[in-house]
Amino acid sequence: MKRVGYVSHPSSLAHEMPAGHPERADRIRAIDEQLARSGLTDELIEHSPEPASFETVELAHDASLVRLLRDLDEQGGGRVDLDTSMGPHSLDAALRATQGAVDATRNVLAGEWDAAFSCMRPPGHHARPRIPMGFCLINHVAVAARWAVRHGGARRVAIIDWDAHHGNGTQDIFWDDPDVLYVSLHQYPWYPGTGDATERGEGGAFRTTLNVPLPAETAEDAYERALGELIEPAVGAFDPDLIFISAGFDAHHADPLCMMRLAAGAYYRFTQRVASWGRGPVCVLEGGYDLAGLSRSSAATVSALLELDEPAGVESAELGRLPGTTEAAAWIERVAELR
Q: pLDDT digit string (tens) for 100-125?
């Protein structure tokens, strides 16, 4: 069995959003409860992070973002945009989530863990260099990826983002960085409106951004085709020293914010495939807002990281492959033509 780190901290429960907001503390509780029911908790190496320093945050963000978060924190919280807010404990939660991703990266690169799942909130992949947005305050996976290259001894790293929303913040941060391959599979057009296949990076980083936009109702068969025909060759050619997963689970068929057609078992198979491509992966929790779908999908991912034979604690009906739109094949072919 693989040595898999599980990063968590009670601060994730203290980050407050307005009543009724889908990005809520119950997301973490649901995952923890599912892992316990599945018998997975005892197989994981638990780790609780300290808060990241502002210097660490600035590996991926401008100092202006740090000043904004500090100012709001000193006021006891406040609204960042229509979707994103801070409460009195939000900055601590975000900083610990960032450090948790960095700690997981350090432990995997050092060989202490084989893989990791950082189960913390708020999520991060929409946070841009200077602007928090989309429920996200700090881009945890981006900070960890930049740390890996600058301080962890990695030459290059790859980020596979399968959240159903495009990770515009991660793309912006690494747009002209040739040391990071950013790959996103996402519902398109959908929030935040970015992620067309023509967005491929610039300068020396041209072709180190790979967007695979997919239509609503896309199911596992199309995801598997994109992973096999587009993404695996791109990762192989890039030859990263570490692989990250922006592990959003809002492409689950029951998610209230997206319209994709994945079952929980798909994430088990996706994780198995990505884990075969190189060191890691370091999984960092992003979206996923149906509690049952989120928790089962997370358990499926953790099961694959541990190299268990099948997802523990996931109902058999969730292991099937759901039917999806036939339009996705043409969308994948368009991406292939651009490569």
A: 999 999 999 999 999 999 999 999 99
List, in order of start, the domains of the chain with CATH numbers: 4-338 (3.40.800.20)
Q: What confidence category does residue 339 fall into, taking pLDDT thresholds of 50, 70 and 90? A: confident
By annotation, the residues acting in catalysis are 126
Statement: the pTM of the whole predicted model exceeds 0.85 = yes
pLDDT of 309: 76
Average pLDDT of the chain to the nearest whole number: 96
From CA 248, how far away is CA 292, in angstroms rounded? 14
* Confidence band, pLDDT 50/70/90 cuts, at residue 289: very high
| Phi/psi of residue 259, nearest 5 degrees | -135, 40
Q: Over the chain, what HEC string results?
A: CCCEEEECCCHHHHCCCCCCCCCCCHHHHHHHHHHHHCCCHHHCEEECCCCCCHHHHCCCCCHHHHHHHHHHHHCCCEECCCCCEECCCHHHHHHHHHHHHHHHHHHHHCCCCCEEEECCCCCCCCCCCCCCECCECCCHHHHHHHHHHHCCCCCCEEEEECCCCCCHHHHHHCCCCCCEEEEEEEECCCCCCCCCCCCCCCHHHCCCEEEEEECCCCEHHHHHHHHHHHHHHHHHHHCCCEEEEEECCCCECCCCCCCCEECHHHHHHHHHHHHCCCCCCEEEECCCCCHHHHHHHHHHHHHHHCCCCCCCCCCHHHHCCCCCCCCHHHHHHHHHHHC
pLDDT on residue 312: 59
